[in-house]
Design a protein that fits this description.
By secondary structure, this protein is an alpha/beta fold. The protein has 3 domains: about 5-25 and about 275-420, no CATH class; about 40-150, 3-Layer(aba) Sandwich (Rossmann fold), CATH 3.40.50; about 170-265, Rossmann fold (3-Layer(aba) Sandwich). About 40% of the residues lie in helices and about 15% in strands. The strands form 3 sheets. It has a 6-stranded mixed β-sheet, with helices on both faces. The protein is globular and about 65 Å long.
Length: about 425
C-alpha cells in the first residue's frame, strides 16, 4: 500500500483519523501546557494518573517553567476509597500554601478519570473560591477521550477567557482571541485597526494579570483559528462582545472582504481601492521574487504550518510554483477549494501524516525539495524548510509577503531539521 494518494484519486470526505495512527517525532505544535502558561501571573495544576503527568512535566521542564506547574497524582487508592474530590481539594490547598507567591489565577486540569468517576469538581472550586477569594480558579480539562466532541485546545481557549468578567466597554479597543503567536507587523488587520487608533489586545502580549483582565472591556473579538471560536461565542454571551472570523487564507477577494467587514463593524475607514491594488501588486511581486529563487524546485507543505494548506497549495500553483505534495489528515477547507485544486493539480500527492503506513515511507527526496512546515520537512528529510507552526502571526497581504520571504530564505539556507522539529511548542516563550 502506498503511503500517499493523488488528489485526483481522493474524495472530499477524506479523513485519515481512523484506527491505528503514527506519531512522528515532530513536536512543534503547541499543547495545553504551553497555552495555559500564556496567562500572566497564573499557576497550572494537572490532576492526573502518573502516566498522564509524565508528558505534562516533561513539556514544562523543556520550557524551563517548572515554577508555573504543580501536579496532583491520582492513584488506584483514590478510586477505591472514593476520595477523588478530597484529594483534589487537599492537593490544591497544599500547593497554594507552599508557593512562594500566591498566583492571581489557577488553571486546574482534571482528566479522563474524573469524568469516569463523575467527580463533583465544581463543588471543590466553590470551596477554594471561598477560602482564597484573591485567586481566580478556572476548571480546565485534559481529557483525550473527549477529543471528538470537546477537543482540549478549543475548550482551553474558552476556559481561559472565562477568567474575564463583564465590565464597562471601551469602543476603541478590540481583542484577538485564540492565538499562540502575537499578530503584529505581518497582519493587515492589526495595521488597519492600529492606524485608526484602535487598541488591539492579545493574551500573547499581556504582561500582567491586570492587563489581561482589561480584555473584558473590548467591544469586539477577532479570531483567526477555528479553535478559538468556542471562546468568542462564549464571550459574546457572557461579556456582550461581538466577534468576527478573519479567514487566514490566500484568496485576495476574501482578504479584502474580511478587512472591509472589520472596518464596517468598528465604523472606521476601510482600505481604499488604491490601497488594495497596491497591496495586491506588492504581494504578487513578492511571490514573483520567491519564484525566481526557487524556480522549479518542488514545494511540499503540511497542515501544522498553516490553517489552510489546500488553499496555500492553490495559491502557490497560481503563482507558478511547483507544488508537489501536502501532508494533511482531514480536509477542513471548502469543497470549492478542493475541487479547484484537484482540477489544477491532479497529481498532487496527499500524505496522511498520522496514517499507520506513513512509517513505511522512504524518507528523503530525489533532488532538492523546499518544505513549509515541520512535518513536511521531516518526512521529506530536508533541511530546506520554513520553520513555522499555526500561521506564526501572519494574516492577509502582509502575511503572504512574510511567507514569501521565509520561503526564499528556506530555499537558500539549510536548517538543522532533526534538531529543530524535536523542540516542543516551537516559538513558545511562556514563563
Amino acid at each position: 500500500m502506498k503511503e500517499y494518494q493523488l488528489i485526483k484519486e481522493t474524495d472530499y470526505e477524506y479523513n485519515a483519523d481512523l484506527g491505528l495512527s503514527y506519531a512522528s517525532p515532530v513536536r512543534g505544535v503547541w499543547n495545553i501546557v504551553h497555552i495555559g502558561t500564556l496567562v500572566p501571573e497564573s499557576h497550572e495544576i494537572f490532576v492526573c494518573p502518573t502516566s498522564c503527568l509524565r508528558g505534562v512535566v516533561l513539556t514544562t521542564a523543556e520550557m524551563e517553567a517548572m515554577d508555573r506547574l504543580s501536579t496532583i497524582t491520582v492513584g488506584e487508592d483514590n478510586i477505591l476509597e472514593g476520595d477523588m474530590e478530597e484529594a483534589l481539594y487537599r492537593g490544591t490547598v497544599r500547593i497554594i500554601r507552599e508557593l512562594p507567591v500566591k498566583p492571581r489565577a489557577m488553571l486546574i486540569y482534571t482528566s479522563c478519570i474524573h469524568h469516569f468517576m463523575a467527580v463533583n469538581y465544581k463543588r471543590i472550586y466553590r470551596l477554594l473560591e471561598k477560602e482564597y477569594p484573591e485567586i481566580d480558579f478556572i476548571d480546565c480539562y485534559m481529557d483525550p477521550i473527549m477529543r471528538r466532541t470537546a477537543p482540549a485546545v478549543p475548550s482551553l481557549w474558552r476556559q481561559i477567557h472565562r477568567l474575564l468578567t463583564p465590565s464597562e466597554k471601551n469602543t476603541r479597543q478590540v481583542n484577538l482571541v485564540g492565538n499562540c503567536f502575537p499578530y503584529g507587523p505581518y497582519s493587515d488587520l492589526n495595521y488597519l485597526l492600529e492606524r485608526e487608533g484602535i487598541r488591539v489586545m492579545d493574551l500573547n502580549t499581556c504582561r500582567s494579570y491586570e492587563e489581561f483582565l482589561q480584555m473584558s472591556r473590548s467591544v469586539m473579538n477577532f479570531v483567526f483559528h477555528k479553535t478559538g471560536i468556542p471562546a468568542v461565542k462564549d464571550m459574546k454571551v457572557r461579556l456582550g462582545q461581538d466577534w468576527m472570523l478573519a479567514r487566514p487564507g490566500y484568496n485576495y477577494d476574501e482578504i479584502d472582504a474580511d478587512l472591509a467587514q472589520a472596518a464596517s463593524l468598528l465604523e472606521i475607514p476601510p482600505f481604499t481601492r488604491e490601497e488594495i491594488e497596491e497591496e495586491r501588486r506588492r504581494t504578487d511581486q513578492s511571490a514573483a521574487e520567491a519564484l525566481e529563487v526557487l524556480r522549479k524546485t518542488p514545494v511540499s507543505l503540511d497542515y501544522t504550518a498553516v490553517d489552510r494548506p489546500l488553499e496555500l497549495c492553490l495559491y502557490l500553483d497560481k503563482q507558478g510554483f511547483r507544488v508537489e505534495s501536502v501532508f494533511i489528515d482531514v480536509f477542513t477547507e471548502s469543497e470549492e477549494i478542493f475541487q479547484e485544486l484537484k482540477k489544477r493539480l491532479p497529481d498532487l500527492k496527499i500524505y496522511q501524516s498520522l496514517g499507520w503506513n506513513i512509517r513505511q515511507m522512504k524518507r528523503g527526496h530525489e533532488g532538492k525539495v523546499v518544505s513549509i512546515g515541520q512535518k513536511s520537512a521531516y518526512f521529506n528529510d530536508t533541511d530546506y524548510f520554513v520553520n513555522i507552526v499555526e500561521n506564526d502571526g501572519m494574516y492577509g497581504y502582509r502575511g503572504i509577503r512574510r511567507l514569501m520571504e521565509l520561503l526564499k530564505e528556506a530555499a537558500l539556507s539549510r536548517k538543522p531539521m532533526k534538531e529543530l522539529v524535536q523542540i516542543k511548542g516551537w516559538g513558545c516563550s511562556c514563563g
